[in-house]
Amino acid sequence: MKFYITTPIYYANGVPHIGHSYTTIASDIVARWKRLNNFDVFFLTGTDEHGAKIAAAAKVQNRTPQNLCDEVSAKFKEVWKLLNISYTEFIRTTEQKHIISVKKIVKILFEKGFIFKKKYEGSYCLECEKFYSQKDLDENNNCPFHKTSLVIQSEENYFFKLSFFQIKLLERISNPSHKEYIKIQPEERKNEIIGKLRLGLEDISFSRTALEWGIPLPFDKEQTVYVWVDALVNYITGVGYMINDAKFRKYWPADIHLMAKDILWFHSVVWPAILMAVDLPLPRRICSHGFFTLNGDKISKSLGNVISPGELVDKYGVDAARYLIITLIPFGPDGNISWRELTLKYNTDLANNLGNLVSRTIKMAEKYFNFQVLQNTINLHLAKRVAAILKENFADSIDNMQFNKAAEVLQDAITLINKQIEIDSPWKLFKVDIKKLSFCIDSYLQAICVIAMYLLPFMPVSSEKIWNMMGAVGNISEVAKKYFSNMIIPENGFSAPQTKLNSMEILFPRIEK
Ligand code: ME8
Prior knowledge:
The protein is of the alpha/beta class. Helix content is about 50%, strand content about 15%. The protein has a domain at about 340-485: Orthogonal Bundle (Isoleucyl-tRNA Synthetase, Domain 1), CATH 1.10.730. Ligand ME8 binds next to strand 1, helix 1, helix 7 and strand 12.
């Protein structure tokens, strides 16, 4: 079975920060989880490179927009590599294949009569790349989202007949039994969209005059395609629209478009309307998360409070950075982060709970058995208890984007093993019953292997290290794929007692300050 997930394509005028990282890591976790569950996954991310905002940023820096985009997209790729993001493809909207695909969509829309010309004057927000009508502005007549002043623009533009799709969109968004149902999450934001849709839809600007940094309209070279239309089409270009029909038919429609709340409207209203207009299937699910603030302030370049993924990785390591970004605030509402809370969670979940479990188990295996637990002492009792807890709650949490809940379930399972060690008090068995001691330690090894498999989507490198330290047999991802397909722990467990365990590496050293 195929599974297609996307992140937004980020504007190529800034630096990747914790907000972009949150969306991309969330998508990566889902993609990895689906792969472990034997789906054929396509995971798309990339950069949004046309439009007034990019042109303006390049002008300020006295360089060409293309030159700026080349640098910023390379920066995004570098950061995704650092964070171990397993994307299938990184798309750039300045690529020729994308330009071909946009022109094709625009041509179909024009030929089908969904585009018309009209003179328009309105307030434009450069940050949102969007016109606002008077009723949407804030009390100071500023952008309701960025609180910045808007520019009055008067142009003769092409418009897209968005209003035509009002009823069709309402049906597809609000009726779960509709065959083209689009599931929008979370529920509150879906209801907001439905509420706005009920009030009626205005046609939207489809092109810009006098903006060279964009894709020219095939039927009017004086105008360029509105950047949002250009950007949304990336989701079909990415899986081969106009280039590779078999690939396109295999992966489209998207199973999940993931983003923050700021751009949910474009994804759940404008994008499906365009797709309906050109007779393409609609995305199945659109998930939006909240906005991060840092110590209570909006994250922004101008405030100088952008936490870079690099800083997080320097402080906590790659896997811990991934884990912390994604679990510190629940998916959905806005949330505040601070270095203090990040470090607290690091110490609690990773240094004290998981790290301690792994290191004490390995230390006991070393001290009592010189890393080689006795043969014929396989004990799957604890592994089965751990597996049952995880089976019950983990998959649903990931499927519902509740990453912090999935992590809580994992932490509960880790705590259970730590508690069992206290109950068994294996150190008391050493001189008394060596066979029982070996059974105890084997039970921890096997249970930790189960934890390691579930940790894979969050911490791909550390889980493999834990797996190897436990002396587990085979490649963790391959074994996990098999395990998740039947949920049966092999009779001989994962970790063969006769194999020598690997000596310990401290994975998550405690951070004192
Ligand atoms: O909107 N908290 O690009 P963009 C949480 N190019 N997430 C945040 C965030 C924050 N403080 N800041 C950014 C665009 N994000 C368009 C998208 S898609 C066809 C075109 C994340 O660079 C979040 O995913 O402004 C948000 O939706 C996205 O970055 C906006 O990225």
